[in-house]
Amino acid sequence: MNVVIFFAPIDDEHTMFYIRFYTDMFKLRFMNQLMAAVGKRMNKVIERQDKGVVETQRPKVSALFCGEHLLKGDSPVITYRKMRDDFQKKED
């Protein structure tokens, strides 16, 4: 069973996330489909529980060079910040 979540920044204050639920625990296909349906429902329950916490948080200032020590796995964050920095320079 795998749960994959993609976070996609929309703007400075909003992020969309996509959840994919994969399962191959059973040899019978309909059991895997049933497990995926249950997993999808539970992910929605968890998402609704987390929504209140996430909505009350204020975003921190984000910049390309802000003293963070980012790792290789943070390359999407770096790419987004570079694009955002370029866009902000073009506006000025």
Automatic annotation (TrEMBL):
Signal peptide: none annotated. Residues 2-84 form the Vanillate O-demethylase oxygenase-like C-terminal catalytic domain. It holds the Pfam family VanA_C. Keywords: Oxidoreductase. Transmembrane segments: none annotated. One of its GO terms (molecular function) is oxidoreductase activity. This is Vanillate O-demethylase oxygenase-like C-terminal catalytic domain-containing protein. It comes from bioreactor metagenome.
